[in-house]
Amino acid sequence: MKKLGDQYTFIDISDYGRPLSNAIARLFQNTFVTAIHLTLLFGLTGLLATQAILEQQFLLALLLLLLKSVIDGADGALARLKNKPSFTGRYLDSVFDFILNFIFLGAVWSLSNLAWWWWIAAFFAIQLQGTLYNYYYVILRNRLSGGDNTSKVFEYKVPKALEGESQSSVTVLFYCYLICYGLFDRIVHFLDPNAYQGQLPKPWLMTLVSLYGLGFQLALIGLGLLLLPINWILPGLVLFTILLPLFIILRKYS
What we know:
0% strand; 10 helices; mainly alpha
């Protein structure tokens, strides 16, 4: 159920729900439930978290955001357990995350008295942060033996559908993915264009960069709702981007 082979390990702060994710995957391994079903379930969980934010039930919102992260990890784990990777699941997962992130932050903004552009700035910030993390992670997965290979460093052409999935679904979701993430991918590739050719990111660096993983970002949002003034959350997410150039420098010179 690993995304990486055994020859490379790091502490993924964002993947705190992995034991539960793996347990869920094992629970459904020999059933009709597929990875796509779990992707749809984490989408529903995200919508429930949004409703909890809007109703200012912040403890419930935190729990649902954490649950969403756990289920988000379980869909890929189930695909690997069943040995049924798919580009459909890979792109659907990413598109759902993009939409839900926008909605989560919109719900937070609606409770604040901040200008609307803080919503957009915070959304841009967390997407850029997450793209850097995914960029380095996908490089590892592509270059190490035993790594998951449904994600590509450069998503520039429609992949050929794998066994059991529709080419039309892969094509549509691929272009949805490009619409959502194309800009962020280009920005990160511009900032660190040679990462895929150079030395692999050190494990300690990947642990630091995992602070930008979606699981940790959602935990920050949930804890912020519970513990901080609502007006601090969106600016705080924007300020968190200050670490991004530091991570790139460390990758280049470590």
